Amino acid sequence: MSEAEALVLREPTPWGVRLVLNRPDKLNAISAGLRDALVKAIADSAADDRVRVIAIAGAGRAFCSGYDLAEEAPATAWAWREVLARDVEATLAVWSCPKPVIAQVHGYALAGGLELAMACDLVVASADARLGEPEIRFGSAPVTLLMPFLIGQKRTRELLLTGDLITAAEAERIGLVNRVVPAENLLDEALGLASRIASNSPFGITLTKRVLTANVDAGSLRNAVEVENRGQTLATRGKDFSESLGAFREKREPKFSGR
Q1: Is 189 a catalytic residue?
Q2: Is 89 in the active site?
């Protein structure tokens, strides 16, 4: 196993792959190596026709504690800008992945770790999880790309300006995570959710995610509707659509091909 492979473990599942951030001694803080390994693992999974759904988890006591502050800081502002531009690549890789991604969150999901979870399509959290963007307490500023889309401006401003950590129950209440389960049920809940998604048409899954992602940047309701109409038109021309209608008429489970 190479160093990169050791930083992000790949566990095959019946519906795809489970990617495990593997720096447990650092609470899975995102180093340059882990970032690059995760970007590659996401790209490889997206290109693999056997993968329907991707899950991301953390080894040890936490999902991800954020970016690794122990790495040497660049000496100039421009060098810092380059580091930050590379760091956000992991978040963007997940956000733009054409296949659904589920975050399996336990322990801490902080700063860059929370941003990674927010970039996933769904977040399942254990009851003991703590989430937040504490950067402001260290004289820095948090990334504000995704949170306003998920929970709105007012709640986002409160979390970012205070740096407070919140419980999994509070995160569920405000819409930051989809569901909260006891720690001992976290894996089964995430795997069960992935299995239910994977039972649907691969083409429909990919198309739905692309439409949802594109409509974040649509700029207007009219543009969003246009994107959705194109997607629906494509979906109804595929073999999976005909198969689903036939299965419905024949009262059987559909056999999707992804076409």
Answers
A1: no
A2: no
Give the active site residue among 72, 82, 89, 115.
115
> DSSP per residue over the chain, as a string?
--HHHHHEEEEEETTEEEEEE--GGGTT-B-HHHHHHHHHHHHHHHH-TT-SEEEEEESTT-SB--B-TTSPPPSSHHHHHHHHHHHHHHHHHHHT-SS-EEEEE-SEEETHHHHHHHHSSEEEEETT-EEE-GGGGGT-----SSHHHHH-HHHHHHHHHH--EEEHHHHHHHTSSSEEE-GGGHHHHHHHHHHHHHTS-HHHHHHHHHHHHHHHT--SHHHHHHHHHHHHHHHTTSHHHHHHHHHHHHTS-------
Q: What are the tens digits of pLDDT across the range 180-205? A: 999 999 999 999 999 999 999 888 88
143 or 221, greater pLDDT? 143
pLDDT in the model for residue 54: 97
User: Is 3-198 assigned to CATH 3.90.226.10?
Assistant: yes
Which of 11, 133, 135, 170 is the catalytic position? 135
- Assign 23 a pLDDT band (cuts: 50, 70, 90): very high
Domain edges within the chain: 3-198, 202-250
